[in-house]
Structures are given as C-alpha cells and as structure tokens.
Amino acid sequence: MLNKYARAFFTRVLTPFAAMLLRWGVSPDAVTLIGTAGSVAGALVFFPRGEFFWGTITITLFIFSDLVDGNMARQAGRSSKWGAFLDSTLDRVADAAIFGGLAMWYAGSGNNDLLCAVALFCLASGQVVSYTKARGESLGFPVNVSGLVERAERLVISLVAAGVSGLHAFGLPYVEWLLPFALWVVAAGSLVTVLQRMLTVRREAFEQEQVGAR
Ligand SMILES: CCCCCCCC/C=C\CCCCCCCC(=O)OC[C@H](COP(=O)(O)O[C@@H]1[C@H](O)[C@H](OP(=O)(O)O)[C@@H](O)[C@H](O)[C@H]1O)OC(=O)CCCCCCC/C=C\CCCCCCCC
Ligand SMILES: Nc1ccn([C@@H]2O[C@H](COP(=O)(O)O)[C@@H](O)[C@H]2O)c(=O)n1
Ligand SMILES: [Mg+2]
Ligand SMILES: [Mg+2]
C-alpha cells in the first residue's frame, strides 16, 4: 500500500537531492552501499543496548537511501539489472540487522524470550515474503500480488514504534509497550503476506498448466 501511495510523494521530494548527488559524481551503487552500511550500523550498535530512539533516528536517516538510489539511477538513465540485484540483496541485509538487533535486545538485557522469538519471526518471515516473489518471478510467474505487509509497511510500523518506545528512556510514560505490539503486528501481517503470495503463485502455476494442457 505504502509502495503504491507514498512512493510518488517521496519521488517528488527526493528528486532534487538525488540530482545533487549525481552532480557531485556520486553513483547509485555507492548510495545503496552507504545506506545499507548506515542502517546496519544503526541497528546493531543501538538496538541491542535498548537505545531505540537513537537507533531509529540513525536508521531512518540512512534507510531513505533506498528511495534515493533508484531515483538517481532513473534520472541518470543508468537503471541496471546489477543495480536491481544489489538494491534487493542489500534490502535483505538491512532488514536482518533491524530485526536481529531487536532480537538481541530481548535475548539480552531486555530479558524476554517470547519477544526475542517474535522479533526473529519478523526477521525470517520478512525474508520469506521477499523470497516468494523473487522465486515466483524467476520461475516465470507474474506474482501479481503485493500482499498485506510489504517491506515499507514492515519498516514503518517497526521503526515508528521503536522510535516512540525509545522516548520512554527520556521519561515519556506508557510508550514502552508500542514496540512489542508492533512486532506482533508485523509478525502476523508477514505471515498473512507469505500465504497471500504463495496462494497467488499456486493459482498462477495452475492457470499456466491449464493453458499448456489445451
Ligand atoms: C518522536 C519521534 C520518534 C522517532 C520517530 C522516527 C520515525 C521514523 C519513522 C519511520 C521511518 C521509516 C522509514 C521507512 C522508509 C522506508 C523506505 C524504504 O525502504 O523504501 C523502500 C521501498 C521498497 O523499495 P524497493 O522496490 O527497492 O524494494 C523492494 C522491496 O524490498 C521488496 O520487498 P517485499 O515487499 O517483497 O518484502 C522486495 O521484494 C524487492 O526485492 C525490493 O526491490 O520503497 C517503498 O516502498 C516506497 C514507499 C516508501 C514509503 C515510506 C514511508 C515513510 C513514512 C513515514 C516516514 C516518516 C519519516 C519521519 C522521519 C522522522 C525523522 C526524525
Ligand atoms: N544501485 C542501484 C539501485 C537501484 N537501481 C534501479 O532502481 C530500481 C529500484 O528503485 P528504488 O526506487 O526502489 O530504489 C532497481 O530495480 C534498479 O532498476 C539501480 O540501477 N542501481
Ligand atoms: Mg532502492
Ligand atoms: Mg530497495
């Protein structure tokens, strides 16, 4: 949903910034790499220590590179299959660091095995959501479904909740439950999305077989 409705807005907002980076001689691949490195560092330095506010601010600053790199490639007429592969592959790395960092907190000082398991479930199911589409498409199916919780939703729900929960450390009361709640929402939504995508590929495979049998 966000991918459909918010992308146009962010494209408009980020286009001048992307153009400026191109004028400075920065390449889309460099933005992809630096954005991922910053997101991973923000997640793995701050989240395992329970510093959710600063972790979220750092990740947010870097994660928008994922919208800038493609914008730069398109403006420069340099969109490439390598760029698409690099972008998608490093998305998985950043996602693993974000949910892995949260799991590390709950496994350590956060001291909550159940929430550690939920964070790990978010990590694994998010990767499977992306895999269903990549594998389906590699087999030649259109995989004509986005599903309930795409990557943008997973990130926005988790990061807004982590950032606001982090304000508890500055004395804001009653916000610390937001992150656990968001993790349950992302876990349930990702499970639904995996099923939606699997059922879509199953339908598309049967339809293709029926056409082939005629
Ligand atoms: C009191 C304050 C507390 C602190 C609050 C901090 C608030 C921080 C809040 C949110 C920040 C979240 C930012 C999230 C930005 C997400 C950007 C992003 O990742 O966009 C990428 C996404 C997909 O792009 P791709 O096509 O490159 O990726 C594909 C995708 O990954 C597929 O995955 P799948 O869906 O299958 O799982 C893969 O299959 C595929 O391989 C891969 O190529 O782009 C979009 O979706 C575009 C829409 C982005 C919408 C972003 C909305 C952001 C909304 C609010 C931001 C608020 C910002 C506030 C800043 C405050 C700073 C202090
Ligand atoms: N280093 C890169 C990154 C991306 N691309 C191209 O952009 C597409 C992704 O666009 P986003 O707005 O989602 O970032 C991707 O499929 C590539 O075509 C690129 O060429 N090089
Ligand atoms: Mg990108
Ligand atoms: Mg991406």
Automatic annotation (TrEMBL):
Per the UniProt entry, the Enzyme Commission number(s) are 2.7.8.-
Q: Which domain of life is it from?
A: Bacteria
Q: What are the record keywords, sorted?
A: Cell membrane, Lipid biosynthesis, Lipid metabolism, Magnesium, Membrane, Metal-binding, Phospholipid biosynthesis, Phospholipid metabolism, Transferase, Transmembrane, Transmembrane helix
**PROSITE patterns for this protein:** CDP_ALCOHOL_P_TRANSF
Q: Which residues bind Mg(2+) 2?
A: D66, D87, D91
Which of this chain's residues are annotated to bind Mg(2+) 1?
Answer: D66, D69, D87
Transmembrane feature ranges: 21-46, 52-68, 155-175, 181-199
Report the cofactor remark. Answer: Contains a di-nuclear catalytic Mg(2+) center.
Q: Which cofactor does it need?
A: Mg(2+)
Annotated a CDP-1,2-diacyl-sn-glycerol binding lies at D29, A30, V31, T32, G70, R74, S80
Q: Where is the active site?
A: D91 (proton acceptor)
Q: In which pathway does it act?
A: Lipid metabolism; Phospholipid metabolism; phosphatidylinositol phosphate biosynthesis
Q: Which GO terms describe its molecular function?
A: magnesium ion binding; phosphotransferase activity, for other substituted phosphate groups
According to its UniProt record, where is this protein located? Cell membrane
Q: Name one GO cellular component term.
A: plasma membrane
> Can you state which reaction this protein catalyses?
a CDP-1,2-diacyl-sn-glycerol + 1D-myo-inositol 3-phosphate = a 1,2-diacyl-sn-glycero-3-phospho-(1D-myo-inositol-3-phosphate) + CMP + H(+); 1,2-di-(9Z-octadecenoyl)-sn-glycero-3-cytidine-5'-diphosphate + 1D-myo-inositol 3-phosphate = 1,2-di-(9Z-octadecenoyl)-sn-glycero-3-phospho-(1D-myo-inositol-3-phosphate) + CMP + H(+)
One GO BP on record is: phospholipid biosynthetic process
| Bilayer topology term | Multi-pass membrane protein
InterPro entries tied to this protein: CDP-OH_P_trans (IPR000462), CDP-OH_PTrfase_TM_dom (IPR043130), CDP_ALCOHOL_P_TRANSF_CS (IPR048254), PIP_synthase_PgsA1 (IPR044268)
* Family membership: Belongs to the CDP-alcohol phosphatidyltransferase class-I family.
Known NCBIfam families for this protein? PIPSynth
What function does this protein fulfil?
Catalyzes the conjugation of the 1'-hydroxyl group of D-myo-inositol-3-phosphate (also named L-myo-inositol-1-phosphate) with a lipid tail of cytidine diphosphate diacylglycerol (CDP-DAG), forming phosphatidylinositol phosphate (PIP) and CMP. PIP is a precursor of phosphatidylinositol (PI) which is an essential lipid required for cell wall formation.
Do you know which HAMAP family this protein is assigned to?
Answer: PIP_synthase
The name on file for this protein is Phosphatidylinositol phosphate synthase
The lineage, from the top, is:
Bacteria, Bacillati, Actinomycetota, Actinomycetes, Kitasatosporales
